[in-house]
Amino acid sequence: MKNTAIILGNGDSRKDINYRKLWPDAVVYGCNGAYREDVDRLVCVDVYMQHLIYESGYCLDNECYFNQWDPLPKEVVNTIAQSMGLPIVTNDDTNKACVRGTDNFVYVTWVQDKDFVNNITDIEISSGSRALLIACETGEYDKIILLGFDGMSGSNIYINTSGYENSQPRSHWEQERQNIMDRFPNIKFKYENNKNAS
Questions:
Q1: DSSP letters spanning 89-145
Q2: Domains of the chain, start order
């Protein structure tokens, strides 16, 4: 059993870190845009990013954790989506879909019968904090490395890519993570960046 997990933040301090080489036995949790990288488990709580990730085909072969991910039968999808009164963004239709709204759009994400998306309870925390919580709750790890969590002054490694058009760090994210770590005193937590990764 692997006893180390890595949670990838999206700060550019991890840009040149080969986390697979430095921690070859670790289970790697990524968030949102990390579906473009080599991760073991992907966590996303953003409606728009969930749609982009699923549309890419990633979820058909890779383990994902999405909140409020509850596909509806085809017969009710259009009625529900249209009732929200917003422009609809959709992918290729199948026999069921997740229908989620934002302030500006309704995302109709048609899904396959077999994928690797785990539906997680909706909690008002960021994807990075949610990934940390999921890793802690497994009970599998005695050490968790937080890589690329750069705080308010950091720049996003995925800046200017789809899903990050308006992305900005939030000041409360650091406290979210600290609150989670305080709940799991038996796990050793360590922040790493490209200056001290070892």
A1: EE-S--SEEEEEE-SS-EEEEE--SS--EEEE---SS-HHHHHHHHHHHH---SEEE
A2: 4-45+123-192 (3.40.50), 69-110 (no CATH)
C-alpha 187/C-alpha 198 separation (Å) is 19
**DSSP-derived 3-state class of residue 84:** coil
Q: Are 129 and 180 in contact (CB under 8 A)?
A: yes
Query: Distance between CA 190 and CA 6 in Å, rounded?
Result: 10
**Paired tokens of 78:** 């259009």
How far apart, in whole angstroms, are the C-alpha atoms of residue 104 and residue 21? 42
> Which distant-in-sequence residues (6+ apart) come within 8 Å of 104 by Cβ?
86, 87
The amino acid that residue 157 corresponds to is: I
The pLDDT tens digits along the chain (198 residues) read 469 999 999 888 898 899 999 999 999 999 999 999 999 999 999 999 999 999 999 999 999 999 999 999 999 999 999 999 999 999 999 999 999 999 999 999 999 999 999 999 999 999 999 999 999 999 999 999 999 988 766 677 777 777 666 656 567 888 999 999 999 999 999 998 755 554
Closest listed residue to residue 53, CA positions, set 74, 79, 32? 32
The Cα–Cα gap between 63 and 164 comes to 22
